Amino acid sequence: MPACNAKMDDLDVIHSYLDSQASRCFNLLYERYSGKVYAKSLTLLGDTALAEDATQEIFTKIFLNLSRFNEKSKFSTWIYSITYNFCIDYIRRKKKEKVVFSDEIEKAPDLAEDTIPDKEILELNIQQLQLVLDELHPGDRAILLMKYQDGQQIKEIAETFNKSESAIKMQIKRAKERAKKIRSDSFTLEEG
How far lies 168's CA from each of 51, 100, 102, 154, in Å? Predict the structure, then answer.
């Protein structure tokens, strides 16, 4: 297999790295994804120093587990999953939260109707949006950002969390409900 170069797709770079252990190959993956990992870590952890440390630790995990990437999903989805899980585990350890995602989501009926239109989320101004995101649980914040900021499809989000699509739809519905409540509780004086 030829030496790694920027024109190669992710799978070719991964295979080349696994065959040759050439640091250039792993560095290429790092160059492609470190900014995205840092941005997600910053969004979830809310601190630049923590996000920088998390990015390094996440890439250490990726480096150590690259041979386990099974190509069932896109490489970017695999990296996002590692990033999300690392950050949520960190938050759980630091805040000693027992549950970030509610167990009731898995037990919810599959046909839950999402009655809050997307425009409720999309019409928040920057200050409102920042406050609402800061007030949400990290799991709710992450899933809303995946859908609305990253434009990920329900199927991709379900793969990332290893949950059913209906469970993800329910999580999004409930996160939107909580975001709407935070907005209405926080901004009723401004609107009056």
Answer: 26, 14, 12, 7
